[in-house]
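Notes taken during the Thursday session

The instructor put the following on the board and asked us to keep it in front of us for the whole hour. The protein is Phosphopantothenoylcysteine decarboxylase. We were told not to look anything up and to reason only from what is written here. First, the residues (223 in total):
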Amino acid sequence: MSFSSPLRCVITAGPTREPIDPVRYISNPSTGKMGYAIAQAAVDAGWTVDLVSGPTHLREPEECILYPVVTGEEMYHQVDALFDACDILIMTAAIVDFRPKSPLAHKEKKGDAQLNIEMEPVIDVLKTVSQRKKDQFLVGFAAETNDLENYAMRKLKEKNLDLIAANLIGSGSGFALDSNILTILGPDGFREKWPAASKESLGRDLVALVTRKMEEGRTLSGS
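Then, after some discussion, the predicted C-alpha cells were revealed:
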C-alpha cells in the first residue's frame, strides 16, 4: 500500500506544566517516551512528522519538526495551527487537566503562601480540535488506574476518535518506563491487547496499524 504523497502526522508528547508562580508548577510524571517512539516510527515509515512536545529530556528524531510547548494552552494553540493540514493526529501528551486560576507574578514565600489554590479547567485539546475533523485519522491515549476499557471507550466516543490506545498505570505499564502494555480500541468494535513490549516496538506497531486502518477506510470509500 502507498499513498500519493507522504502522510503528514502531528504527534503530541510529554507532560504539560501549569504555573503556580515563576518557580512552582503543577505537572505529572510523563517523560514523553511513548510519543517520541511513535514519532521515530512515523519518520521511519516515511511520514512527515510535526512533534508538539511538553518539557522532556529526550532528543527528537532528526527528520521531524519539533514544536516545544509548556502549558496546555500553548499545546492547544500549536496543535490547532497544525491540525487542518495533517492527515493523522496522535495525542500521547499527558496534558494537565486543571491549572491555577490566578498564577502569581512573583515567587511566593513559604510563610505567605496560600494552602488553597483556586483552579480552573485546562482546554481539552483533543476534544476541541476533533470538532472540526474532516478526513483526519485521530488516535488518542488513555492512562487509567481502574476500569480501563470503559473509560477508554467513553473517551473514544466523546472525542470522535478512530483509535484509542489505553494502558493501566503500574505493573510494567505507564509513565516513565521503557515498556508499555496497550489495549487498542476502535469505534467499530476493533479490540487488540498488546502485551508488554518496548515503547519503540509499540510505536512501530501503532504506525503500522494506523496505516492499515487508513487503507481499509480508503478502500471502503472507493477512493
